[in-house]
What we know:
This protein has a 9-stranded mixed beta sheet with strand order 1-2-17-16-7-6-3-4-5, sandwiched between helices. A 4-stranded parallel beta sheet has the order 11-12-10-15, with helices on both faces. The chain is of the alpha/beta class and 694 residues long. 45% of the residues lie in helices and 13% in strands. It folds into 4 domains: 1-29; 35-246 and 576-637, Rossmann fold (3-Layer(aba) Sandwich); 248-471 and 559-568 and 645-692, Rossmann fold, CATH 3.40.50; 481-553, no CATH class. The chain is built from 29 helices and 19 strands. 45% of the residues are buried. The site of 1,6-di-O-phosphono-beta-D-fructofuranose (FBP) has 14 residues, from loops. 1,6-di-O-phosphono-beta-D-fructofuranose (FBP) binds at residues 105-106, 108, 199, 226-228, 279-281, 360, 452-453, 569.
Amino acid sequence: MESLNIKSLESLLNHPKTIHVTSDVNTETIERRAFSPKKIKIFSTRYTSLKDAPEFKFGVNQEAEKALSDIVNNHVQFIVPGEDKSESAKASFSIRRNIGVFFSGGSAPGGHNVISGLFDEMKKYNPDSRLYGFLFGPDGLLESKQVEITNSLVDAYRNMGGFSMIKTGRTKIDSKHKMEAALKTCMELKLDALVVIGGDDSNTNAAFLAQYFKGSGIKVIGVPKTIDGDIQVKTNDGEMLCAISFGFHTAARAFSQNISNLTTDAGSDIKYWHICKVMGRVASHLTLECAFQTHANLSLIGEELADYTDQKRIEKAKEKGTVDYNAYGMTLRHLSRLICDVIVRRAAIGKNYGVIILPEGILEFINEIQVFIIKLNKIIADYNYIHDNDFHSSFPALADKLEYLRRLARGMADKGQFPIWNLRDDDLFNQLPLFFQEGLLVERDTHGNFQFSQVKTEKIVMDMVKEYLNVLKEQGKYKIGIEHSYFKSLMENANMIPDKYARAIFKNPDGACLIIKESIISLKTMKQALVSHDLISQDEPLPAPIITIYKKSEPKFKTQTHFYGYDGRGSDPTHFDCNYSYNLGMIAFHLIANGATGQMAAIRNLEKKFDKWEPIGIPIAKLMHLEERNGKMQLVIEKTLVDANSNAFLVFKALREEWLAAESHQDRYRRPGPVRFMGDSEEDRPITLMLNSI
Ligand code: FBP
């Protein structure tokens, strides 16, 4: 019997259908791998050249002029046809090359296509050229851990998401020792060039490597990646050279599909508020894009909150002839009030459900929290420096960290070194919930960035919202609106005159959606209202329909929290990102073949149709500014935040009241559908990008 079972299981496992449906490679993957991204027209010409464009100007940082002197005078470069090259230039364009590449930072959909674009183009000019992929990000370069990227390896990852082909890492190449190690690896592999695929910090790495490698002749080219969308390059004159990094569109679309599904569910079982925290370490570009993609009821844009002013407080202070500094900037309390306001307004029209999008980096724009983040960054950095030991290893438990801060506040630890943390800071910090204190003390990444993704921002905000909603409920201000027609039929069925009762219990008895008066906050107060309108006597019980109405008006605030980040970051790329990233890989090759270094591969006119896309190189050193990292000022590429004057933001501001749908019965949710890579999706690119180009 047993042998028969084994036999039949074996034949089941060997059945072609079983093999097909249990294979790791499904039809979607096969189609993705076979898909050929479009190539910008210039790449169909045999040779290209670079044309300097000094007319594009940037405000160059003085520190960058000193630290990156060999590359800071680079210009923007256009890739132009190079058929008129001399024979020797043509030959040197096509020489056999060794190129190294690594990913750096969080993964972003399209990374594998950068490698395939680079690989295909490199092999097209010289099949003997070799591409090496450094493993685990910058660590592979520093420790000389690499694989040769072969045709079959590239084919397995074409148009596929993630950085799994060679993995990634976040190590910062920030010391002479590391620079030397990097150069040694490149020399040993006889590299002609190195391509760094990364975000602002990684392209900063690329610029410093380009500077350090200058004497060796090894070229370094950066490729802008990050789902956060905060690497955008504009000249001094406002000319957009790089409107978005690759990966942004896919991540936003992947998040949006999930958020959109939540709007559908929320509008179906009408009992939950879904709170969606969306990645984006600092800038709120992803949240803004998700807002356009889904029309969620409330999307908070951190950059807008930073400019928040409390007009009432300002006026009050003015009357007294004083200035209220607390009226400027958003606090967590303000923020929770703002969210409550939206919840209460929707409830009043009978909608006790909805979807809120919260940017991961929102804390960066909340004054009181930002102060803590800056102070703690400095304290941790100074501790590490003075003690030559890691703060987090010295104080692994939260209690130890807090004790250290307490001692600082009392001037008992590292006397005189840290006036930065005082008793008031300590008091305020200790008022925060433990999980939040822990979040704010979380280890900084190697670049000195605060790790917003590790903090349960949505929980702290929503706990405050719940608390305040309870207050509003007790004050009778948070009520579910009752549809007039429903009330009317309920009363008529019980032979009661709707109008009479409506006037006694509702503050808007003629409204389409009836709201119970603020003074009625219990069945007892409801009874008093009816008694005072002579609708019942003191001894009579409340009529059943009135009890039903009261119960229906009582809000129950139920939430579900969601974090969208790693899921969308790991999505397979959209059609836009497939094309975009593949062409970036080709551009990286053409910059190298034309002798560029310290440049970032980019595409101008991304917001326009594909035939308008223009491949360019952008001088990385010119994008640098000084920023506080690990408690010190350091040169890094400046992040681009959401611009409150951009078209996208202005349109968002104009439409958000409609998307809130607190006035009309109809919700305005939009369904972006799943991420696609084929089909008629030429126009499918970030909505914010399209709006900003108008
Ligand atoms: P990059 O800046 O490296 O592109 O990463 C962006 C990001 O996805 C942020 O949105 C997020 O805050 C962070 O990475 C998460 O970091 P980690 O992958 O280390 O958890």
